[in-house]
UniProtKB/TrEMBL annotation:
<feature type="domain" description="Plastocyanin-like">
    <location>
        <begin position="68"/>
        <end position="179"/>
    </location>
</feature>
<dbReference type="InterPro" id="IPR011707">
    <property type="entry name" value="Cu-oxidase-like_N"/>
</dbReference>
<dbReference type="InterPro" id="IPR011706">
    <property type="entry name" value="Cu-oxidase_C"/>
</dbReference>
<dbReference type="GO" id="GO:0016491">
    <property type="term" value="F:oxidoreductase activity"/>
</dbReference>
<dbReference type="InterPro" id="IPR045087">
    <property type="entry name" value="Cu-oxidase_fam"/>
</dbReference>
<dbReference type="InterPro" id="IPR006311">
    <property type="entry name" value="TAT_signal"/>
</dbReference>
<comment type="similarity">
    <text>Belongs to the multicopper oxidase family.</text>
</comment>
<feature type="domain" description="Plastocyanin-like">
    <location>
        <begin position="376"/>
        <end position="486"/>
    </location>
</feature>
<dbReference type="InterPro" id="IPR001117">
    <property type="entry name" value="Cu-oxidase_2nd"/>
</dbReference>
<feature type="domain" description="Plastocyanin-like">
    <location>
        <begin position="231"/>
        <end position="295"/>
    </location>
</feature>
<protein>
    <recommendedName>
        <fullName>Bilirubin oxidase</fullName>
    </recommendedName>
</protein>
<dbReference type="Pfam" id="PF07731">
    <property type="entry name" value="Cu-oxidase_2"/>
</dbReference>
<dbReference type="InterPro" id="IPR008972">
    <property type="entry name" value="Cupredoxin"/>
</dbReference>
<dbReference type="GO" id="GO:0005507">
    <property type="term" value="F:copper ion binding"/>
</dbReference>
<dbReference type="Pfam" id="PF00394">
    <property type="entry name" value="Cu-oxidase"/>
</dbReference>
<dbReference type="Pfam" id="PF07732">
    <property type="entry name" value="Cu-oxidase_3"/>
</dbReference>
Length: 488
């Protein structure tokens, strides 16, 4: 695979200059990186949002979207956009079978929409890019939570503004649990830790600088809104929920002590079988849940989570786990590598993997940048809210062939489909490894890749977007729409 460094060597810098004004790039380059010793700030965990009301089957919440100030660097106030003043926003805990209703008030001067990434929701609550909440208005989103347990996240999706508004802070986690989840012998409570990673550039005054597409000049990685934090852990097994909420940053995580992860879940929930992993790829919008075992790590030492594909040295070490005491007490059946954790059949599995003869349609989508205009296109067209790119009969299963047409430019893309969790069938003709197969809602497309995915559209009726989840690309129109229509 070409990495982005190779891409630049190969001359795509010329293409980039066409696409992005050099003046902006130059001004961004002139700023100094942060002068902050690594691992000098403790990790913070976003608060869990409290419902305003509960009924027999529904939890009601209120959130306020507004400009705020946040201390990213010690003693420095950074202007941010926030849900309820949080950077990132508060975490919503949801349970399968109980609906969640969120009333979002837009207290910003610009429109907002709220999309619950990875969720099966009615189109009216999907946070469609063209369905915004006007400034000073509020809107109610209804989430049925009729899907397996998963680490989901919510974020702004306002067309042309999502890149900047998410960058300035409009994202948060939404953790959906279900009875299967509750039965598994997984670490819980303080040992179930949310880690949201994102790219950032802070200027000399500690303010966020947003230059679209400028992946080379976002030298700071924030974890739950903190640069290179440390986190004190006990000598226990931990469940880490990794969410990449970056606009552009790609991660390949490893642990500095060489220990392996046990990956138990992907974007849309538990894997059929947990996978022992040395490294975890996590591109924008992807999630992975992993178990990390600190039991054999000597007390008083530390382990760093590192990004082995970081573009600069200061972005390699992401977070430091400082291992303290507190040894025994874990359930003995948990080991890495271990026997499969998920021994029960997960509801919804069989129907999501129908036989090939049930596939009713195959479509092909090519993601490509126009080298002349710099537009980010799907099948040579930019986003048009009045155009439906795929009309799908309710209940049908389709295969989509996704092509990254920017092999020559070395530019990665992803594909995210709203509404569904899909199965990745193969990549460049080779089967995808199990941990990257299902359930997925966002798939990585390396330059030149051809990836086939399969999805069944048997839930909602309505119009939903699909788009590159490098949000700066989506912002430049790399987005289409599918519409699920009643079966005739
Ligand atoms: Cu893209």
């Amino acid at each position: 695979m070409l990495n982005r460094r190779d891409a630049i060597k190969l001359g795509s810098a010329a293409g980039m200059a066409l696409v992005f004004p050099t003046k902006q790039l130059a001004s961004a380059l002139s700023d100094d990186p942060l002068e902050l010793p690594p691992f000098s700030i403790p990790l913070s965990i976003p608060p869990v949002l409290k419902p305003t009301r509960r009924t027999g089957d529904t939890d009601f919440y209120d959130m306020r979207i507004a400009e705020s100030w946040h201390e990213i660097l010690p003693g420095v106030r950074t202007r941010t956009l926030t849900f309820n003043g949080g950077f990132p926003g508060p975490t919503v805990h949801a349970r399968r079978g109980r609906a969640v209703v969120v009333r979002q008030f837009n207290g910003m001067g610009s429109p907002a929409t709220v999309h619950l990434h990875g969720a099966n929701v009615p189109a009216s609550s999907d946070g469609h890019p063209m369905d915004p909440i006007a400034p000073g208005q509020s809107r109610v989103y209804r989430y049925p939570n009729d899907q397996p347990a998963a680490t989901l996240w919510y974020h702004d999706h306002t067309h042309h503004l999502e890149g900047e508004q998410v960058y300035r802070g409009l994202s948060g986690a939404y953790l959906l649990s279900d009875p299967v989840d509750a039965r598994l012998p997984l670490p819980g409570g303080e040992f179930d830790v949310l880690l949201m990673f994102r790219d950032a550039k802070l200027d000399g005054e500690g303010q966020l600088v947003f230059v679209p597409d400028d992946f080379m000049n976002r030298p700071t990685i924030l974890v739950n809104g903190r640069p290179q934090p440390y986190f004190e852990v006990k000598r226990r097994l931990y469940r880490l929920r990794l969410i990449n909420v970056s606009n552009l940053e790609v991660f390949k995580f490893r642990l500095s002590n060489g220990a392996r992860f046990l990956q138990i879940a992907s974007d849309g929930g538990f894997l059929r079988e947990p996978a022992v992993r040395q490294e975890i790829d996590l591109w924008p919008a992807e999630r992975a849940e992993v178990l990390v075992d600190f039991r054999s790590v000597p007390a008083g030492t530390s382990v760093e989570l590192q990004n082995v594909v970081a573009l600069s040295e200061n972005k390699r070490d992401i977070i430091q786990f400082r291992v303290g005491g507190g040894g025994p007490g874990d359930k003995p059946e948990l080991t890495i590598p271990g026997r499969p954790l998920v021994q029960t059949e997960i509801p919804g599995w069989p129907s999501r993997n129908p036989a090939p003869e049930r596939v009713s349609k195959t479509r092909r989508f090519i993601l490509r940048i126009d080298p002349v205009t710099g537009e980010f296109l799907i099948n040579d067209r930019g986003f048009d809210p009045n155009r439906v790119d795929a009309t799908i009969q309710h209940g049908s299963t389709e295969i989509w062939e996704l092509v990254n047409g920017d092999g020559a430019f070395g530019i990665p893309h992803t594909m995210h489909l709203h509404l569904v969790q899909f199965r990745v069938l193969d990549r460049n003709g080779k089967p995808e490894p199990g941990h990257d197969t299902y359930p997925k809602d966002t798939v990585r497309l390396n330059p030149g890749d051809v990836v086939r995915i399969q999805a069944t559209f048997d839930t909602q009726i309505g119009r939903y977007p699909f788009h590159c989840h490098f949000l700066d690309h989506a912002m430049h129109s790399m987005m289409g729409q599918f519409e699920v229509v009643p079966r005739r």
